[in-house]
Each structure stands twice: as C-alpha cells, then as structure tokens.
User: Which sequence fits this backbone?
C-alpha cells in the first residue's frame, strides 16, 4: 500500500495535451495532487473535472499542480478533448499499470457491472446520458471489446486523490468507494494547506 511519508513512485506518461509528463520534474518546484479518475466516460468525473478547472487558478496560486490520470486510450482521449480545453495535464493509463503501483482498486468488469448500471442511469436522468454513451462508445469500441471492458474507465475503477509535496513525499491519500463524492475545491484547498503545513 502507498503509505504517507514514503517517496511517491516516479513515472513518465504522455499527456493528452502533448508531451511527456515526468513526476520528477515537479520536485523542488511544486506539490502535486494526483487524481486517479474513471476518465472522460464517467459523468461524475466529467463534472469533477469541470469543478477543478473552474478553481485551477487557486490551486496554482498555492503552488499545486493537478495531474488527472485516467484509464482511457490516449488517441481516443485526444479525440474527445479536441474541442474541450484542459487546464491541467490529462494522463492516459489504459492498462492501469500506474493504478496498480499506487494501489488504486481495480474492481474489474464483474464487480463494476452494478456501478456501471447505476452510473448510466444517473447520467440519463441528469441530462448527460447521450454524452456518456458517446464517450463510452469512443473509448470501448477501439480494441478488443472484452479487453477494453476489463480496463474500462466507467465501471472498473475506484478513485483516489494523492498529495505529493515538493520533496516527492506522499503527504495525504483519499480513497473513494465508487459513489462517494470528491471534496469541493474549497475543502480540498483547505486540506492541502493544512497538510503541507504539518512537519
């Protein structure tokens, strides 16, 4: 398990915006909040992405960079976000190797089925059903259907927020079960500020 106080495992991943993002490049400059998400196919994650983007300037004012990690295919994510400006790096990990390294739970297609049904139902009743269907089809119908369903961003992944300080040390970890809410920006900024003040 990822433990508070340990060095965060380093990684290099190409971003949707282009270019390689190297976690080591932030050491000595910025703290980093990793958001292990379900990706652009999930209506909850799209809403949270919009929330973080709305407050992104406040995070940067406090010397925090946000890195969103999603199990989407890079080519499909670039297609999806072609007309949607992203404020912070969106990193694709379609085989979920980084999820395993950071101990983010992979529920798998069988455990995730109930979550998927609920999320699709929520999406349709809250006005995002067509967008969710479009995003899911874009991400799933690319490779082997069964392979993509196993790694599907929508139904198979729990979420986690992990705060890494400027020295590359894990300072705070928030694990979220499938339908727990992520904190709002104000609460998140307060938690980050309090955590980073602690020795």
Assistant:
């Amino acid at each position: 398990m990822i433990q508070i106080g340990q060095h965060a495992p380093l990684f290099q991943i190409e971003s949707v915006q282009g270019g390689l993002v190297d976690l080591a490049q932030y050491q000595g400059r910025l703290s980093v909040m990793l958001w292990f998400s379900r990706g652009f196919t999930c209506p909850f994650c799209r809403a949270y992405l919009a929330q973080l983007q709305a407050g992104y300037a406040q995070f940067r004012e406090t010397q925090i960079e946000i890195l969103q990690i999603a199990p989407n295919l890079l080519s499909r994510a670039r297609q999806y976000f072609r007309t949607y400006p992203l404020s912070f790096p969106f990193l694709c990990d379609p085989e979920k190797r980084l999820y395993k390294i950071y101990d983010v739970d992979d529920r798998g297609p069988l455990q995730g089925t109930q979550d998927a049904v609920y999320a699709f139902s929520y999406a349709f009743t809250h006005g995002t059903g067509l967008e969710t269907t479009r995003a899911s089809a874009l991400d799933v119908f690319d490779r082997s259907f069964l392979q993509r369903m196993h790694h599907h961003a929508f139904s198979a992944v729990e979420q986690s927020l992990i705060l890494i300080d400027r020295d590359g040390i894990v300072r705070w970890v928030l694990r979220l079960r499938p339908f727990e809410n992520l904190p709002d920006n104000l609460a998140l900024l307060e938690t980050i500020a309090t955590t980073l003040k602690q020795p």
User: Anything to note?
Assistant: The longest strand covers residues 64-70. The helical segments are 43-54, 56-61, 74-80, 97-101, 108-125, 129-140, 145-150, 185-197. The mean pLDDT is 85. The radius of gyration is 16 Å.
